[in-house]
Amino acid sequence: MGTLDKHCTGYKIDDVFKSNALVDIRACNKPVVKSLFRGVRSSKFRHVYGSPSRREELYDNIPITRNAHDSNFCAANPKFVAIVTEVAGGGAFVVLPINKTGRLDLNTSKVTGHRGPVLDVKWNPFNDNIIASCSDDCTIKLWYIPDSGLSCNLNEWLIELRGHRRRVGYIEWHPTAENVIASSGFDYMVMLWDAGTGQILNTIDCHPDIVHSLAFNRDGTRLATTCKDKKIRSIDPRSGLVVSEGICHEGSRSCKVIYLDNERLLTTGFSTYSDRQIAIWNHTDLLEPLHRVNIDSSSGILFPYYDYDTRMVYLAGKGDGNIRYYEIVDESPYIHFLNQFISGCPQKGFGMMLKRGCSVSRCEIMRFYKLHTTRNVCEPISMIVPRKSDQYQHDLYPDTAAPVPALSAQEWFNGISKPPVLMSMKTGVSVKTHKPQAFVSNEATRNDTNYRMKFAFLSKETVPDYRPLDMLPEIEKIQKTQVNQNTRFQQIQQKLNNSLVGKFTNMTDGDEECNNMKENSNYNDNLKNEYQMKKAFTRQCEELNMLRKQLAHRDRRIQDLEDLVSTLQSQLKVQRLQ
Fold first, then answer.
1. In this model, does residue 505 exceed pLDDT 90?
2. Half-sphere exposure of residue 221: CA atoms within 13 angstroms, side-chain side
């Protein structure tokens, strides 16, 4: 076996391996040889894998829209999944409870209030029952979905936002302010709305062409957009001023943008030679990217999805069958490829589940709802970190965004900025608000976990309980039993109860044991029925309030139309007299 020269002069890497030479790393000064022996980068997400759903867990027989618009056509939250459908003569989308899987009935109720095709849908991040939709009819509408789902076609909206002169292509909710929506239309305008009052907060008219995407940063102080003129812009949404702009990608096809934090951006697009690319930017200087990577030469538009908690970016191309995922870091090159989920079925769109809707028992860090191109199927795909233990993994689930607004729309528009309110994935309550700083010692501050557990109850609203004290133990026992009824212990207990019921039916009414069992069962049934009736009464009150709002809105609409008709009639009479 030959040896290399002391300084490795005159050798190439290929020559080294072809000659089977023995390389002395300490003696070789060539940095290119040293780079061959670098270790693998450490990451707890290196082995993340995608888990497709079984056949019975699919949403089947859904007439998915055939519209060629560059949108996701799907949105999900812990309660519902919304999918844009194909309907003749108008626009519609179906809203299904998250657990209602299987084959869909052809006559399933839909949201049918738009006069044109629906182009985008987004759930309110602070209310899982309210969804916003934009359409080809130049409007944005907000809808209320009851917890039980739709029982008939819904064509009465909560509020209608009118202001765009052409069709509205994209909408985005503000991440921290309540009832603030950003919309972009084919009239080259970006509008900020207060959905609570229906007023326009600001109109941004700095784009010379169609806007392809828009995204807020983490606290909502910046709005990033990509445009058909190949430029990316960072905008102050309250003033409408362009903070920075630059050429995004040289290709002529659509570019997409997301915020990675409050300062950095990620864009997807195409190069001059139609290669798909991703780029990392600093939003204060958009003249040159921090890093740019070529992906492949496919033609489908890449849609980026970012998880703030795990700092992972997922890329899904329209028409592709795979999902690539990367990890974001603070040092150059800022992005590292992890792996990809490969499937043989191409996708038309994706819905991304909120982190508080993921299953912590399965170590699920993300869930997507994939719309198939060739079949009328919506398939849930879970991204899972393999762990041996089934206990709660604190390193996988840091505090995530809670369904609680940090400030109101008017406060935000007046210049106040706040980070999002966070919640614990383990306890399910907010842990970043109402911190009793006066009671925190230095030792408690160091141990943040113990501090959060100790004062987590302060983030809950105190609700008075007027139930009799002697009934509380029985009611709490019933509630705990209902929560844990799917456990193995409860299944065995249910079998034993069924056997006891069988014996009970065979007893005669005169037996003392029979009478005691009857009295206990009647007492428990009364408690259970009372609890269920209170719960049903609360739900009915909420739905009744929403129906009252819808009726009031319909009455105002009828009055406006009657006034318009009377005005037209008076004008017609004047013209006839002339």
1. no
2. 13
